[in-house]
Amino acid sequence: MTKFSVKENELSPARILIVDDDKSFGKMLENVIIRCAGFDCSFAEGAQKALTVLEERVFDVVITDINMPNMNGLELTRIIKEKYDSDVIVITGYYEDFTYEEAIDNGANDFIEKPVRPTELIVRLKRVLRERAISYKHKQAEDALQKAQKEREDSIERLRKALGSTVQALAVTAETRDPYTAGHQRRVTDLARTIATEMGLAINQIDGICMASMIHDLGKISVPAEILSKPTKLTDIEFMLIKTHPQAGFDILKDIEFPWPIARMVLEHHERMDGSGYPNGLTGDKLLIESRIIAMADVVEAIASHRPYRPALGLDKALEEISRNRGAFYDPGAVDACLALIEQKGYQLQ
Q1: Catalytic residues, which ones?
Q2: Which of 230, 198, 144 lies closest to 338, judged by CA?
Q3: Residue 316 and residue 269 in contact, taking contact as beta carbons nearer than 8 Å
Q4: Are 103 and 77 in contact (CB under 8 A)?
Q5: Is the pLDDT of residue 7 over 70?
Q6: Is pLDDT of 113 > 50?
């Protein structure tokens, strides 16, 4: 659709098209508008000629007679509103045949009865032009808002990619010291994402869960490598060192400005619903739902997969664990979603 020719807060130079099958009457109106208002005014003899002119030039307002042969003014008004960006004022001497409501319903902006008084015509025309200018102003504001929104979305997407690269770099850092961590974090990420989707969490929350899951064991870089890869059962002291990794991960991430509470999710991924977890013994009502999902996905993957000190126990053992401790250790909604995914929908750890 053609852009407005009237600028914000301007009535001049407005472009006006007069349409009438009576050439003498149309020319009279043209002269009145030029003389009294100084607008750029043109005349078209009949509706068909008007449509030809409208293809060639942009007009702010079309002033048309209604009672014309071949195509009346209301039909012309409908076409103008569908095809061109012009406002319309209709004029008729047959006011008993055409009502104001009928003219407005066909898209007209105003309706004037003959005989036309020059003063009334100019007043009505200026009012339509002012409303057009206001509409133009609103359209400018809407376009500016849409542009700003698009720029904001583009900026967020660039930030998201940059954060993704940062998180990937952090994940690689952890993986270089503990090869087991690499596959573990990827599988926990996929399972946690799928559970969150099954639970109906918002896309933004799911994105945060994925980011946090990818680096939930980042804090293990502070644990001696020989403890991480020890093939036998850990001593109490060694296990105490392992239990420091959520806090260590939090300390690394807490000052990075993610759009999600990544550091907190990492800190809470070993907490339990009943407060028996670590490092802070928080209960379920104080834990993020994202943290509760990651915590359970972490347990399922750890039990089902190979660990340095034991072979894989399998998914059945993992499901038995979360079912037995549903509501005690693990979020009930997350447990139910996980069971449905694996037992009913055939989900497999990748």
Answers
A1: 220
A2: 198
A3: no
A4: yes
A5: no
A6: yes
Domains and CATH numbers, the chain: 15-144 (3.40.50.2300), 178-344 (1.10.3210.10)
Peptide linkage before 13 cis (omega within 30 of 0): yes
Scored b (16 or more CB within 10 A) or e, 319-344 reads bebbeebbeebbbebbbbbbeebbee
Beta strands at 15-19 and 61-65: parallel, antiparallel or unpaired: parallel
Q: Do residues 261 and 208 touch, judged by C-beta distance below 8 A?
A: yes
Query: Cα 122 to chain center, whole Å?
Result: 45
Tell me the β-bridge partners of 24: none
Distance of CA 221 to the CA centre of its chain: 38
CA distance 292 to 123: 68
What does the pLDDT look like over 130-174, one tens digit per residue? 999 898 888 889 999 899 989 888 887 887 777 778 787 877 777
**Which residues does 126 contact at the CB level (< 8 Å), separation at least 6?**
11, 37
Please return the burial class of 161, using the count of CB atoms within 10 Å of its CB with bins 0-12, 13-18 and 19+.
exposed
Q: In the predicted model, is pLDDT for residue 11 greater than 60?
A: no
SS3 for the chain is: CCCCCCCCCCCCCCEEEEECCCHHHHHHHHHHHHHHHCCEEEEECCHHHHHHHHHHCCCCEEEEECCCCCCCHHHHHHHHHHHCCCEEEEEECCCCCCCHHHHHHCCCCEEEECCCCHHHHHHHHHHHHHHHHHHHHHHHHHHHHHHHHHHHHHHHHHHHHHHHHHHHHHHHHHHHHCHHHHHHHHHHHHHHHHHHHHCCCCHHHHHHHHHHHHCCCHHHHHCCHHHHCCCCCCCHHHHHHHCCHHHHHHHHHCCCCCCCCHHHHHHHCCCCCECCCCCCCCEHHHCCHHHHHHHHHHHHHHHHCCECCECCCCHHHHHHHHHHCECCCECHHHHHHHHHHHHHCCCCCC
Q: What is the pLDDT of residue 179?
A: 67
